[in-house]
Amino acid sequence: MNTQGRKTHIDALGVEGGGAASAAAGTISGNRALMLEEPLIFEQDSPGTTGVDLPEPPAVKSRLGQVRERGRIGLPGLSEPEVIRHYTRLSQKNYAIDSGLYPLGSCTMKHNPRLNEKLARLPGFSDIHPLQPERTVQGALELIDTLAHWLKTLTGMPAVAMSPAAGAHGELCGMMSIRAAIEDRDGGTSQRRRVLVPESAHGTNPATAAACGFTVDAIPADATGRVDVEALKSKLGDDVAAIMLTNPNTCGLFERDIVEIAEAVHAAGAYFYCDGANFNAIVGRVRPADLGIDAMHINLHKTFSTPHGGGGPGSGPVVLSDALAKFVPLPYVVHGPDGFSLVESGADEDSTGKEFGRLKGFHGQMGMFVRALAYILSHGADGLRQVASDAVLNANYVMASLGDVMTPSFEGPCMHEALFDDRFLKGTGVTTLDFAKAMIDEGYHPMTMYFPLVVHGAFLIEPTETESKQSLDAFIRVMRGLAERAKSGDADHFLGAPRMTPRRRLDETGAARKPVLRWVPEVEQREAAE
Ligand SMILES: *Cc1c(COP(=O)(O)O)cnc(C)c1O
């Protein structure tokens, strides 16, 4: 093991006292019982070692010319057990929904039933190829069509685009659909370039609008944490293409004036995009179509389980109203007398003639479709309704149990997530970030912090419906204990946290501003220094 190299790597990450974690443990190995130190795989390199036994390649004259390999390509040499141990140790350093409560607000980190995984691994779904002839994948196409039917039924919408690969991708799809509809309606001469987005919106909303060539105009929140309807109406005009509104919003509140907002937006000739990432709170209870929504993405990976985190995989189908139903991405599944088929181009006889092209190589995230449909069918319509009720009940239990020691940002009950701000930490010398670090020592992944931006030092806690009362009580006990500790003047406890993790507190600013993304072998470093 190359300890020298490891230190270099830790310094490069900007870790304060990085080596101290092992030194403090006082063990010879640097390990702390089951918490094993793990160098980078490159630092474990033993040149020439491999996990396979291959015969020497025959000596043939290379035909690669200029593109011939000139030096080592730098892949580390390790045996099979070394590789397995490396990745197993790394995986043990992860916090996961399978190891404990994961209260990240807005992310809906719920339990993923194992049944979904089992079904997604059926060879008929997992071993097929998107370029296979349609007649050989009728079951897969039927599954996409059945899931689409459920999504349309649950939202009351007439159409759904299945191919977007995540929530943000769904927003892009919905806004491209709106842009296509406006251009079609106004004959390509539309002056509608402005999109209204509430201040509390997820960052992907303004980013999507800007990526589609619109300018973004922020709508302020009122004192109850909801959209200020009068401010919204004053911003409507014939240059507005759409509003992008999240409901329930990112403060965990239902936008009570949503129908009035939809009517005003439509009267101004604009479309209503709804960010449906929080559908978990209302699924089975409210149909977005009844609220006047024109387009809404559904994060299958938030509402209908399917694992997520770490960058994917996700799936963000977009439901569309009558006004937008023709303006869809290709391809999509249709059902005819000869079974299921895919509309792949505008020349297809089933084409709407108004498709705006492809968003993705193929038809969508098949594995996520299988998991989401398994989740839907195993819950049934009544079970899905129960999901929403339990998610809201759990969040309100957290809100009510912490309301006296922390500061809820808005009055009254919440929907699926409880929002607090940092007023209760005033004068303690402890920030939201310090508080989050102390939660890690208690064995919890922190909640979403500093988002939404409309409150100061936000704590956004979303327990989801899959936590039991016992698990919520344990979490509440920790949160209460930490809040009381901060108020008792023990700031040092927080400023020094985390103490029990493989690494202590990171210099996050340094890591963001001066990221060191490439590991340099020690030899090269020495050569560079000479
Ligand atoms: C998660 C989320 C998104 C983005 O979804 P991704 O699948 O992560 O791209 C957008 N808006 C809100 C409110 C979200 O919570």
UniProtKB/TrEMBL annotation:
Keywords: Oxidoreductase, Pyridoxal phosphate. Residues 191-309 form the Aminotransferase class V domain. It is an enzyme of class 1 (oxidoreductase). Pfam families: Aminotran_5, GcvP2_C. Residues 390-485 form the Glycine dehydrogenase C-terminal domain. It catalyses: N(6)-[(R)-lipoyl]-L-lysyl-[glycine-cleavage complex H protein] + glycine + H(+) = N(6)-[(R)-S(8)-aminomethyldihydrolipoyl]-L-lysyl-[glycine-cleavage complex H protein] + CO2. The keyword Oxidoreductase applies. GO terms for molecular function: glycine dehydrogenase (decarboxylating) activity. Its EC number is 1.4.4.2. It comes from the Bacteria. The glycine cleavage system catalyzes the degradation of glycine. The P protein binds the alpha-amino group of glycine through its pyridoxal phosphate cofactor; CO(2) is released and the remaining methylamine moiety is then transferred to the lipoamide cofactor of the H protein. PANTHER family: GLYCINE DEHYDROGENASE (DECARBOXYLATING), MITOCHONDRIAL, GLYCINE DEHYDROGENASE, DECARBOXYLATING. This is glycine dehydrogenase (aminomethyl-transferring). It comes from Skermanella cutis. The lineage of its organism: Bacteria, Pseudomonadati, Pseudomonadota, Alphaproteobacteria, Rhodospirillales.
